[in-house]
Amino acid sequence: MGRIVQEAKYTCALGAQQTVLGIERAVPVIHAGPGCSSRQFAYMGPGSGYQGEGYTGGGQIPCTNSSQNEVVFGGEKKLGQLIDAALQVMDADLYVVLAGCTAGIVGDDVKQTARNHAAEGKPVIGVDTAGFRGNNYVGHELVIEALIDQYVGDREPEVRKGLVNVFSVIPYQNPRWRGDLHEIKRLLTGLGLEVNVLFGYESGGVSEWQDIPNAELNIVLSPWVGLDAAKLCEKKYQTPYIHEPVLPIGLKATSAFLRRVAAALHMDEAAVEDFIAQEEARYKKYFVSLGDLFSDFASYLPYDAYIVSDAEYGVGAADFLTKELGMNVVSFYEFDEPDASAKQLVEQALSAAGEGLAQTLVVEGDNALIRADIAEKIAERKNKSLILGSSWDKELAEQTNSILVYYGIPITDQVVLSKTYIGYAGALTLIEDIYTGLFRKGMITNTTHGEDDAI
Q: Which residues contact 168 (CB under 8 A, 6 or more apart)?
């Protein structure tokens, strides 16, 4: 039975327009009612750390603004005219037509309309992303698979040794996606690989998508998002893939991830270990600096952790907080609401990350219910706590005297540009944000520094 979700941390499948915007010089063309596109952008643009419009986002996104007329008589003709207009006035390399609920209900065929333009040599594809097909995680998957099927298409691979494709973070839905992809590419390039990250400033835009069949290996860096795309590539281009369900945060997870990638590609072990040793040495020097803080303020440090995140970031956080910061993850609230098979993958990833972590999993898409549950558990356990949450959790953190780190959307009072919590460097940033919270929350007061002390 359906229910009302009070504070959803995702949008509908049409939110995949932001996936398109994550590709350099790609334009989403929306076939939906008035306001559908703008609401998607408002939540995952300004509502996700004020990331900006990108090349053709925000009010620039072409939309049919379907009305009663299109509901009664169909909107394919109007959509075709809109595509023609977009091709004339918008300078882009790729146009992705996305269907909203109205088009899905009346049966407008956006795929065929797109094919009509593609037959004329235009770079146009169509995807049925009607909102009732699922949330924007599902929409993201649909767009990726459509790009591979309709845009990249069937071709004979020309495999280049050392070339890898990365299927990982979701543009805009994950506030740090640009910084994350930068760090992922930096790490894999450090091994000596050529890396297609497919989205963001570190990618080559549509040319990287056209290069997908030539990869020696596909890397799925997520519990379930991107896995179907990798399987599709294996079927179409015979490209093998490795599935890395834990987003690497910190020394242990990152080094292990790099070694597994290197082993899958039979890379020179000595060169790989040299790069890892350099990265680990740098990380350890900074990490050791925490010693004074830990010794001076041990009684103030948070012990319990509550993670409110999608599967991708949540599993990585649980792994890092447990293994490297010694925290106790009380609950991991997964809000992307995966289907049964995806949930099983998340549980398996948590079990592999640490004993008992799978038992912390709570699948819940309503942040109001999540917040109430966290408040109840903190009151019951009476431990100092860390909450990896969002702007919606500020009041909860104040009421429970907990440290709050913005980990997912909505983020409405902080700007996110190139920040990352991934890898060695990202983990250091996350550590800074966690323990800076001790002072921002006033947990450390004039009991340690007098009000009149000079600092």
A: 180, 181, 184, 197, 219, 220, 221, 222, 225, 226, 247, 312
